[in-house]
UniProtKB/TrEMBL annotation:
It holds the Pfam family Cys_Met_Meta_PP. GO terms for molecular function: cysteine-S-conjugate beta-lyase activity; pyridoxal phosphate binding. It is an enzyme of class 4 (lyase). This is Cystathionine beta-lyase. It comes from Pararhizobium mangrovi. Belongs to the trans-sulfuration enzymes family. Keywords: Lyase, Pyridoxal phosphate. Residues 1-10 have a biased composition (Basic residues).
Length: 409
């Protein structure tokens, strides 16, 4: 668990406040980011402001839009409080709040890319991102090339004159390959290409993407910032070079989040550091046990010394989160589906459901059929595990039952 944030010195809308919190630890900053009780009559939490229309005092002000709030789409005290808190964590010039994690990917893509452009996307990407690229972007005339997550600086060979964006995700969805983000950033920026990163797994607590040169840091706040599996929300934080276009894209598309969801995520932020530490420790504990378990061919967790990308993880990240995968030992491909179903159906504590980052443990059979470069493991089906806040010993007993069930298939 990191105790300090590395600090950017420019572009942060909370810069004045940050001067007094420069050396504060993660949990202190989470408790006070976006926190202005004196602006709301001393109440600890910012108000939930439901707004579309905002009234102006006179015609001149209305014509010039010369007041802080002008229309609900452009922001309210509730959305501003959350955006300011995320800026404080990310070290960003600005943050937009959108209705889902997927929207946090599609809005900046639409803002950066035009017909005739080319985008590079990591092959281990979140699958709805791939679907967006293969459908809507393709119809717009944008070409997508998927690249190996371990490509590093060799990504320079894939950059064309019309490449406008490199999209990264570390670790990769379901298979947890690490990317060499600094090497990719250097190669992209040398050609004037922007870099975006889906940083949902680590959050800015464990990896401050903008400090590593990433231009657009994307987070599904549905996950750890919320922590309760009851909110859909996404955030995109930009550096100074990318902020103006990102903000304009959001306003042009009319994509904004509701105040109730922003409030719930703001409340979740206060405990995210404590929760994430529990997720981290429990997941590592279980991953280490599962490495020795009968019926497990491989554990895919970059925090393990056995992971092929562990050195990159240790170099760049200050912690790991609560989601990883295991590969079941099933040499016969014909048994993969049956073994995966047996594993899932034997679970009692783990729920069978998508998403992650909440208080409850979840398990899914990862679908990897859409990979084109980063081929899935061959030893058996990949089971993705979200480790919640339950006691690890109870979760391990549940996993043991599931592994026993697969042995008879």
């Amino acid at each position: 668990m990191p105790h300090q944030f590395k600090r950017r010195t420019s572009g942060n809308r909370m810069a004045d406040t940050a001067k007094t919190t420069e050396k504060k630890g993660a949990n202190t900053r989470l408790a006070h980011a976006g926190y202005e009780p004196r602006g709301f009559h001393g109440f600890v939490n910012p108000p939930v402001v439901h707004a579309s229309t905002v009234l102006y005092p006179d015609a001149r002000t209305m014509e010039a839009r010369d007041q802080k709030y002008t229309y609900g789409l452009r922001g309210t005290p509730t959305t501003e409080a959350l955006a300011s808190a995320i800026d404080e964590l990310e070290g960003s010039a600005g943050t937009i709040i959108v209705p889902s994690g997927l929207a946090a990917i599609t809005v900046p893509f639409l803002g950066v890319l035009s017909a005739g452009d080319h985008v590079l996307v990591v092959d281990s990407v979140y699958s709805p991102t791939r679907n967006f690229c293969d459908t809507m972007l393709k119809r717009m005339g944008v070409e997508t090339t998927y690249y190996d997550p371990r490509i590093g600086s060799s990504i320079a060979e894939l950059i064309r004159d019309n490449t406008k964006l490199v999209h990264t995700e570390a670790p990769g969805s379901n298979t947890f390959e690490m990317q060499d983000i600094p090497a990719i950033v250097d190669a992209a920026h040398a050609r004037g290409v922007l870099v975006s990163m889906d940083n949902t797994w680590a959050t800015p607590l464990y990896f401050r993407a903008l400090d590593f040169g990433v231009d657009l840091s994307i987070d599904a706040a549905t996950k750890y910032p919320s922590g309760a599996s009851d909110v859909l929300l996404g955030t995109v934080s930009a550096n100074e070079a990318a902020w103006a276009d990102l903000r304009q894209s959001q306003l042009t598309l009319g994509v904004c989040a509701g105040p109730d969801d922003c409030y719930l995520v703001m409340r979740g932020l206060r405990s995210m550091g404590v929760r994430l530490e529990r997720h981290r420790l429990s997941a590592l504990d279980l991953a280490e046990r599962l490495e020795k378990a009968e019926g497990v061919a491989r554990v895919l967790h970059p925090g393990l010394a056995s992971h092929p990308d562990h050195a990159i993880f240790k170099r760049d990240f200050s912690g790991s989160s609560g989601i990883f995968s295991i590969v079941l030992d099933a040499p016969d491909p014909e048994t993969h589906r049956a073994k995966a179903h047996a594993f899932l159906d034997a679970l009692e504590i783990f729920g069978l459901g998508y998403s992650w980052g909440g208080f409850e443990s979840l398990a899914v059979h990862a679908s990897l059929d859409d990979r084109t470069v980063a081929k899935p493991p061959e030893e058996g089906p990949v089971m993705r595990l979200q480790i919640g806040l339950e006691d690890p010993d109870d979760l391990m007993r549940d996993l043991d039952r599931a592994l026993e069930a697969t042995a008879s298939v």
